[in-house]
Amino acid sequence: MEYQNSISFAKSLDQQDPLASFKHQFHLLEKEGKHVVYLCGNSLGLQPKNAKAAIEQELNDWAEFGVDGHFDGKNPWKYYHHFLTENAAKVVGAKPHEVVIMNNLTANLHLMMVSFYKPTATRYKIMMEATAFPSDQYAMETQARFHGLNPDEAIIELKPRAGEYTLRTEDILAQIEAHKDSLAIVMMGGVNYYTGQAFDMKSISTAAHKVGAIAGFDLAHAAGNLHLQLHDWDVDFAVWCTYKYLNSGPGGTSGVFVHERFANRPDIVRFAGWWGHDEKERFLMKKGFKPMEGAAGWQLSNAQIFPMAIHKASLELFAEAGMENLRAKSVLLTGYLEYILKAFSEHLTIITPSDPNQRGCQLSIIVKENGKALFDYLCSQNIIPDWREPDVIRMSAVPMYNSFEDIYHIGQALNNYFKK
Ligand SMILES: *Cc1c(COP(=O)(O)O)cnc(C)c1O
Question: Which of 131, 260, 283, 335 is at a distance of 20 to 30 A from 388, taking alpha carbons?
Answer without folding.
Answer: 335
